[in-house]
Design goal:
The chain is an alpha/beta fold. It is 41% helix and 14% strand. The protein has a single domain (15-243), classed as NAD(P)-binding Rossmann-like Domain (Rossmann fold), CATH 3.40.50. It has helices at residues 24-35, 47-59, 77-91, 115-140, 164-183, 202-207, 223-230; strands at residues 15-19, 39-44, 66-69, 96-98, 146-151, 189-195, 241-243. 42% of the residues are buried.
């Protein structure tokens, strides 16, 4: 696992938005950030899951989180603009954004990729990430030091047979991250991506249904990198895709 001790990390006074916060890696990241002192904004498409994470955080006596129900598949640019304006008005700034939500689509031969599946994957994994970044960067720039973190994959820098739309979308994600990192080099905003590796999540189960889940890292196992990139210890890291495992 990524060699970083989270026990001394301090996220107090930071406001961090996490997409896909209702389950899997997003849920664990939101809980971890809250436990380290951050106020978290939970974004996801399923209200009941977001409310469950909210309840967990409140039960631990931590800073009250905010909930933003939003389906990235159908959201418009105006939805993102309004969301960013609300966050800026309520919190004054954003110290961190973890763009974690994405969809797998279908694992299929390239010539059999269905057009609608391809469009859906690109919409959620690329277009929505672009619009989120565009509208949230001004609010991130209001923080003394801000971190924008994308989520990549092992198939995001080396294409793999049958991973079609998902692999292509993660190549685009890494390219987007690098463009933003280069544009804001030398400012208070740093931009990076995480490759979580083989982790026990629902998406992983869909891709590898016969896999032994006991051999996989848990979302908790890979949190050191997620904390590192949100902490001030990573102020000099920019434009990198880092492996959590």
């Amino acid at each position: 696992m990524f060699n970083y001790s989270t026990k001394d990390a301090d996220l107090r006074n930071k406001t961090i938005l996490v997409t896909g916060a209702g389950a899997g890696i997003g849920r664990t990241a939101a809980l971890t950030y809250a436990q380290l002192g951050a106020t978290v904004i939970l974004l996801g498409k399923t209200v009941s899951k977001l409310e469950a994470v909210y309840d967990e955080i409140i039960a631990l006596g931590l800073a009250e989180p905010a909930i933003i129900p939003l389906n990235l598949k159908g959201a418009t640019k105006q939805n993102y603009i309004d969301m960013s304006a609300t966050i800026a008005g309520q919190f004054g700034k954003l110290d961190g954004v973890l763009l974690n939500a994405s969809i797998l689509g279908e694992l299929t031969p390239f010539t059999q990729i269905h057009e609608q599946v391809f469009n859906d994957v690109m919409n959620v994994n690329v277009t929505a990430q672009c619009l989120l970044a565009q509208t949230l960067i001004p609010t991130l720039l209001l923080a003394p030091n801000a971190s924008l973190v994308f989520t990549s994959s092992g198939v995001g820098n080396e294409g793999r047979a049958y991973w079609g739309a998902y692999s292509i979308s993660k190549f685009a994600t890494e390219g987007m991250m690098q463009v933003i990192a280069d544009e804001y080099e030398g400012t208070n905003l740093r931009t990076n991506a995480i490759n979580p590796g083989a982790t026990n999540t629902n998406m992983r189960s869909c891709a590898f249904p016969a896999e032994d889940k006991d051999q996989l890292a848990s979302p908790e196992d890979i949190m050191p990198l997620y904390v590192y990139l949100m902490s001030d210890d990573s102020l000099e890291v920019n434009g990198q895709t880092l492996k959590a495992q």
